[in-house]
């Protein structure tokens, strides 16, 4: 048995119940029980007899041996029908849940998972309701930590004892007779709770067998009491051995995870195989020990050539700072570290005291003798060095080594090529806040106190709800002591949530509030689908301290939706808000930001301080800022888990101005790469042009060099992702309207921008909005033209085919037309060859075009964006804010132009609607004569098609359509003229 789990993470699987199970006992019912397997551990529920909707309400606990590898483990639940007749239990279904989708205790929700088949021939039906969570152990007290250290020191000695004892036990087991082994094997096979995972468990034991087992357990307990003094030491050794096995297992899992993910850490793959390894000289200064005890301020100074850097000034002589010097920028072979003490010297009266720096001594190093270190080597241990060169003297503890940007100390180090210790120039990884939809259903109010201080007529009432900065209102209803709405209001909530959802009842004719109630957001229930209805609650309304009535509402956090915070066409994450609905990742994408070339000067002084931002899913990565360089080299690598291949990775380059002036960072350019266009396990190293649209036109700002690789964990999971819906189920079961979805997306974008702007270093709102395409929904003449030409380009193939058909019909090439006649005869006489020929033709076309497939991931396309043929006034309109800030004459001219375009679109829509209305009028006797003629023609056609074989009709119609032009008339056919004369509803429109 595993330990109690007090010092380990525990997994809790609560099996609530099942629905609509398949009858298995021949009488229309089933006696179901469930078996849960996790990490070699197995638990079983009780049997619920003769019920297709069993309710267990049981909690099963498991020990998590390695919390770090919990995401790679799976929880398997198998449901069986208990026959109770000695026969094998029948299979009712199973569920597999990835460890990455398990929530922490307190945030789990009830989810009904559909039961899956075990094989192709399994018959499965229904679903099972589960609540799965994990519980972390409490933090150990200092005394327990000390005891743990002592236990670790005693492990080697105890491990030797356990090895000797295990050898003895193995020898004793070999000496046992074979009959006893056979009996033990038979006993283990008869117990379904200890059967192997690959086999289905045996029937549940009968009541008599259970009584026998209880008697055996009591006998064993009696024996244990007698042998307890002799077995204490043996239990201790076995416990130590079990700890060693768990440790070795966790170490093996760590190695597997690292081999799959290419290393760990927030900076992506530890190997840094997509970028060039840049050498840096690292100097880590920990502390100093002066020869004379002093309480004055001290600091260390590092000098190497033209580089002159000082640590922070402290009184405790404890700095623990790391400095990284780019090897290419070193202009000296000597490194010198000096320690200084600041002494306060009193001056004349009416003047502040001055500080004089006294050098305690220095330590010198020859760069050629500095050792090299490359991860995963252990960090270099710091050493004490004696300060020399005059002065009071003392010791300084430091470490000096050569490494690369893959070193763990690089991200927090002072960097010579990125502005040193300026916080706004450091590389960082950010996480977007976890977003939820909060649904408020306003049902009704009761006992409203509508009488105010002054007598006034009763006005219509509405309910206003506010969450943070979001305010939504219901429709108006007639005033009364009881009013009913049944309306939904949808908010965007971000973790950590705002404390309260404020609900108030107001009069529509004034700002007078009848009453107000506060709903704690932390107590709102969560749901993951539409099958469970959240409970409704009554809240008291208060106007000041007085009671003003009650309001009946229903609130819930919708975990089944994906909260969009970026453009739908370039989304990078489609997972539901609830972690329990997320599937395991299908692969990883690694991005190496190598560098940029030929950047333009961005600041008035002719300089550029560039950094790159990469966004995929909820994770953002920001490289360090390379100061005053038009060809910066970052050589940084990052990694993301991929849950859907049909998503987009966004990379943008900005000019950093916050570290100098504090103003907004300037855009340099952006590219997007869709992961589905990448071959798996192939490294792409390419340069992409950086384009930015200005009021004066499009401008190329430089080029960005990237290295990208999409690694696939399982081809089966990758192919399954293409067959699954793009968005979670709730988007199709209860879809949101286009206008509501745009409003919620804009709100989510503002929340993400505000949260990331409070990080350190902050990711400015101008950066977040540019990455998320905050202005994608605004009107733009250029975008409209680009979309129009995209639509025209998609129709060119159809237009080419129509031109080819016209050429065949016009006998432009008589040989081609004769071949089409022969093809028509073959198709009519052998119709079973139509579909095979069509699909074979498509297969050959796809195979032929394989040679011309794109080999480079596409970036931003200036020609497709229609930036070359756009006018200056159209660009000015695109950069104009909303509402417009231009003069009235200019706005009037733009409005007239927009009216002209809208008029053409209006005419086109009217013509399309008229064709459908003519078809309805043909069948609706709107024109009695036309409908009568159509009815007669249908009767004649029915007789003709009944008498003449269908093949002959098709052949004659084909020959008639392809007849020679000398046998055709230039006037429209009779059928077309007849259809155009049918009335539409255009004449009834005002």
From TrEMBL:
The region called Disordered is annotated at 133-237
Where in the cell does this protein reside? Membrane
Q: Give the record's GO CC terms.
A: membrane
Record-linked InterPro entries? C2_dom (IPR000008), C2_domain_sf (IPR035892), C2B_MCTP_PRT_plant (IPR047257), C2D_MCTP_PRT_plant (IPR047255), MCTP_C (IPR013583), QUIRKY-like (IPR047259)
- Tell me which domain of life the UniProt entry assigns to the organism this sequence originates from: Eukaryota
Residue ranges constituting the C2 domain according to the UniProt record: 1-112, 417-539, 570-688
The annotated topology with respect to the bilayer is: Multi-pass membrane protein
Basic and acidic residues composition bias: residue spans: 146-197, 205-237
Q: Name one Pfam family in it.
A: C2
Keywords (alphabetical) are:
Membrane, Repeat, Transmembrane, Transmembrane helix
**Any stretches that span the bilayer, and where are they?**
818-844, 933-962
**PANTHER family for the chain:** MULTIPLE C2 DOMAIN AND TRANSMEMBRANE REGION PROTEIN 14 (PTHR31425:SF43), PHOSPHORIBOSYLANTHRANILATE TRANSFERASE ISOFORM 1 (PTHR31425)
Question: Which family is it part of?
Answer: Belongs to the MCTP family.
* Record-given protein name: C2 domain-containing protein
Native organism: Acorus calamus (Sweet flag)
